[in-house]
Design brief:
This protein is α/β, with parallel strands linked by helices. The protein contains 17 helices and 14 strands. The strands form four sheets. A seven-stranded parallel sheet has the order 9-8-7-6-10-11-12, sandwiched between helices. Helix 11 runs antiparallel to helix 17. The termini are far apart.
Length: 456
């Protein structure tokens, strides 16, 4: 079936410096070593904003004829775009937010390749090297603002949520916006879009013209979670681990809405970090919230955390059901503590250097069938390391659900097999089954076929 498409030629608007010939060649290189494929896929995802696809493979197949190339002119560059989704245009003109996002994608993909991946100054085998790389990518994107008081709330939650949960996330965003808090999300639909929409209205009522809506994505997930155009600062991190680190280093507090396997991955990531002995005294407000209809969801998550990571992990978050104002006040109070703490230690407000992130949370995890089978899911290890391995398990489920590579691997080799202790596998199987039953694995209207098998 043919979908409406548009051809266009666009120039950057103060978004990107002039590219060198070598950089252009690297981007246009369609071979394995080049950047063209990653740039094309991310650009298509950005242009597909507002669509109901959450399947990387389906998106690439739907717009097979899509092509994007860089035209070098004496005074800079233009992007020549063929077969772009018509949803990105209004009366033949590209939506300004999407226009900006395209050049943000270009900026980050070139910067990461030239300045980070191929740069011997960053030792990506070491914790400090990875944290430094994350800092440089964010600084290059212009999202680290040194003169601002802490006020950035990271909102996590599912892309596949129901209307009541979406409206609730919007109301929470609105209450936070009224209190001058800015929003950072994974920039896709659902619980990532709602808080930004709500905050936009809150900021407008308070006449805050400089409201920040920071979106942090990564190439593997962007097709499933196209950035919504409210995002006024978009950053593409090289992989899921650096994306997660960027969230916790830049954000001053986290609100978690209902979601599926990706949200469970994020919860396990932040809890694993907060449970590290070195982080015991670092204030980090963390609130799980949803409407009354989602109460059962948080009961299940809370129980799963109790059964796997234990009661100590439960001390690091608060669950607030059906009270957006309380969530906003809780965040405001928590961020005030963060400010006092950082001030007392002369720490930066814009990047949380003090947080210890174990290398197990930083090493990129490739969710292959073999790696999923070999995950160490047993109680006989430090609790923060168990959290790291549980995060990887959920990361694999996300890949099998929505990422182009993951979907193709499942089609080729069958289900991922996840093994481990009975007292971990039992709760995990129950939690994943509840996500399936509550339609949290795929967008509404799509039947879900599990990509995993839990073996007890």
């Amino acid at each position: 079936m043919e979908h409406d498409v548009v051809d266009t030629l666009i120039s950057p608007e103060g978004q990107l410096e002039i590219l060198s010939k070598a950089e252009v060649n690297k981007l246009l290189d369609t071979s394995q070593g080049g950047l063209y494929n990653i740039f094309r896929n991310c650009a298509l995802a950005v242009l597909n904003c507002g669509s109901t696809i959450d399947d990387g493979k389906e998106l690439l197949e739907r717009y097979k004829s899509f092509d994007i190339s860089i035209v070098q002119r004496e005074r800079g560059i233009k992007l020549d775009i063929k077969g772009a989704p018509a949803i990105a245009f209004v009366d033949g003109k590209m939506i300004k937010g999407i226009h900006e996002h395209l050049f943000a994608v270009l900026r980050d993909i070139i910067f990461v390749s030239n300045e980070v991946t191929d740069n011997s100054e960053f030792d990506l085998a070491k914790t400090e090297g990875i944290t430094d790389a994350v800092f440089h990518i964010l600084r290059n994107a212009g999202v680290l603002k040194p003169m601002l008081n802490p006020n950035l709330v990271v909102c996590w939650g599912g892309h596949s949520i129901n209307r009541a949960e979406y409206n609730y996330s919007k109301e929470v965003g609105y209450q936070m916006g009224l209190r001058g808090l800015d929003i950072c999300t994974g920039c896709g639909p659902g619980a990532m879009k709602g808080p930004m929409k709500g905050a936009t209205i809150g900021h407008a009522k308070q006449r805050m013209a400089a409201g920040r809506y920071l979106g942090i994505s990564e190439p593997g997930i962007i097709a499933a979670e196209s950035p919504n155009p409210i995002v006024n600062e978009l950053v593409i991190m090289p992989d899921i681990e650096k994306r997660l680190e960027a969230f916790v280093r830049t954000g001053h507090g986290i609100v978690v809405f209902p979601g599926g396997a990706g949200t469970a991955e994020e919860i396990l990531y932040i809890l694993g970090i907060l449970l590290h002995p070195d982080n015991a005294d670092i204030p980090f407000p963390l609130v799980f919230t949803g409407p009354e209809t989602s109460r059962e969801y948080f009961v299940q998550i809370n129980q799963f955390i109790h059964d796997t990571l234990g009661p100590e992990a439960q001390q690091r978050y608060k669950i607030i059901v059906d009270d957006p104002e309380l969530v906003a006040r809780e965040m405001q109070a928590g961020i005030k503590q963060v400010r006092e703490f950082r001030k007392s230690r002369s720490d930066a407000y814009y990047y949380n250097w003090g947080l210890k992130i174990d290398q197990e949370f930083q090493k990129p995890f490739a969710p292959t069938h073999e790696n999923m089978r070999n995950l160490s899911l047993h109680k006989n290890q430090e609790v923060h390391l168990l959290a790291a391995n549980l995060r990887r398990a959920f990361s694999g489920v996300v890949a099998g659900n929505v990422k182009d590579e993951g979907i193709r691997a499942i089609e080729k080799y069958g289900h991922f097999e996840i093994h481990g202790d009975k007292q971990i596998m039992g709760p995990m199987d129950e939690l994943l089954a509840s996500f399936v039953a509550q339609h949290r694995m795929k967008l509404a209207g799509k039947a879900y076929t599990p990509c995993y098998r839990v073996i007890q």
